[in-house]
Please model this.
Amino acid sequence: MEFYLIAILSLIALMAYFLILKPLVPLLILKLQLGDKAILMFYPISGLLGVFTKSIKNNHDVMETMNKALRKNPKAKVILSNYFTTPCILITGSEYIKDTFLDHNDFEKINPFMLPSFIQRGLLMMEGEDWKRQRKFLGSAFTFEKLKSRLPMMNKVVQSIAEKDDKKNLNDFMARITGEVVIKSFFGELAEGLQLEGKDAQIALIQLTGEIGLMQIENIYIFLKQLLFKERAWDIFPGQKEKDIVRRVENLKMKVKELIVKRIEQLRENPIQDEGKMVFLDLYVTEYLKQQKQKEQQIEIEEILHQFITLFFAGTDTTATTSGTCLYYLAKYPEIQSEILEEVQQVIGNNDVNEENLNKLNKINALIQEVFRLKNPAFVTLFRTVKQDKQVQEIKLKKGWVIVQMQNANSIQDSHFDNATEFNYKRWLNKGNVIKNDNGFIHIPFAAGPRNCIGQHMALMEAKIIIALIVRKYKILLNPAVEQIRFGVKFLQCVEPDNCLLFEKRI
Model:
């Protein structure tokens, strides 16, 4: 009996060490060293995930717990939390954010999906020379000069889906638009009518990525399993939901590979000479065939597949949630909606958004910037692990620790914006300096440094068109049947519930 008691107590002591002492002691030491520069938010096991979920429950806003703490202590430069049993440092000070963005090679991104062979070889997750090669190759395709040829397609997609969609689900409505734009930009006519699981491809894809993200937040068993076993977690005692996700992922990869192989054969027989007419897949396939001919193969079919999933994930959800949040604020503040409508009528009238009038939509641009400032969908960056012991300002980060850049942390501080907690899109219309004490890393909705968002021009272009054309055609209203609107998280921060808005056709 005494042996069993000792064994049980030893097990409890061991668990207490790994779950509490191992992550907490380094955090407490850091707190003592940094004083007011650090805020401690430690939760055994759930860690940072616990902070987010409790913030949604208590404040109806995934970021409000942290924002309140930062407003209460404006001297804070970091938030000290945990990623299960590992110390997790949220970087909030702009100088600290700057250092970690510029020294990106010292950190390794944690795969947000934890799926084998999914996005690992895409631009988002690539490191070192392979990342430089991909960034250089794709960079020229994301300039405004190249993207402006897609303006007619974007107009057509927005108008078509706005007309056909029942608009009862805001996030699905926006995702249908942005997803189709990404698919047409990548595959062109090749993906016309593409279906997955009996649904339009963009909806099936956005639901798939959203469900993976929600599983990690809502199911502690899956969350812990992925922390421990990474990509192998899907093979270890999988539940029915996990099996279904894996099946859908494999089906997606098979369908996309079929399209890629088909395009390779088409361009092998009939190469496109005019680069201006190429979609992203054509650029990749042309380079793939060129390397094959020269027997210097760097690009493989698997990389093209991962690149599509990466661009879809990065380009669909972010722009959809940004646009949806903009529409929410137009419904919440009818006077702003009237001002935006007036601009649309004056600038584009009954015409499409085109190269000449796009950059004259100053109020819409200001609206988007204000949404980015207060409710950026990418409210934190992807989690990263520290590769080797690393000094950031006065903090010594240990190998294996986790860091997260909280890129909107300074947006809610009065030291950087007048009346920082107030939604005021007109601040961005001022000709003077909007941002106070700016080191270039205060308002960074698309991140900053060498690994900033390559698709930011396309995202802004698309969001402007969505807002302009929808406001012109519909009066946007808050749904009176919805008692509580919240800013939750599906993978990114978004307005919930999905039926929070109504769209009334203008006469």
Observations:
- The radius of gyration is 24 Å.
- The chain has a mean pLDDT of 91.
- Residues 2-34 form the longest helix (33 residues).
